[in-house]
Design brief:
Blueprint (H helix, E strand, L loop, with lengths): L11 E7 L5 E11 L6 E8 L1 H58 L4 H33 L11 H18 L6
Antiparallel strand pairs: 1-2, 2-3
Helix pairs in contact: 1-2, 1-3
Amino acid sequence: VETGESRILGQRLERPALRADGSEFLVEIALGRVGGTGQPIYTAHMRDITERKQAESERELLLARERVARLEAEAANRSKDQFLATVSHELRTPLTTILGWATMLKTRTFDPDRTRKIYDSLERNAHAQAQIVGDLLDVSRIVTGQLRLESETIDVCDVANLSLETIRPTAVAKGVALV
C-alpha cells in the first residue's frame, strides 16, 4: 500500500491454512485490488486444493512407476535380443558342421575309415543341435518350475577333441590344417 508496488497481487499463491478443527490443509489464494482511487480495497479468493495436490502426487507416482516399468521392459528386450543372438550362434555351429560335411560327402570321396569319422561327426553335431533345442525347451520348464537337473561326469579331452571335429569341415574346406 505504501509503495504501490505489488509482489502478490494478481498471482496465485499456495499456502497452508487451518480448518476450524485445527487440521492443516493447502489452499490457493488469489489476491486482487478493487477500485481505482481512494482507500484501496483488496479481495482474496481461497480454494481448497488438497484433492488436486493428492491427484498430482498420485500422477507423479504413476509416472515414476511407468518410467521404471519402461526401463525394465527395455532391459528385458535387450536381454531377449542377446538371448536370441546367442541361440542363433549356438544353433548355427553344429549346423555349419553338418552342412560342411554333407557338401563334402557329395563332392568328394573319402576312405572308409574317414567316412565313418565323418558320419560320427554328423551324428554328434545333430545330437548337439537336438540338445540345444532341448535346452530351449528347458527354459520353458524353468519358467513353469518343472525343470529337472541331471549331473554327469565328462572328460575335458573329449570335449576339446569334439570341438576340433566340429570346426574341421570348415577348416578343410578353406584349406586350413588343424593340428
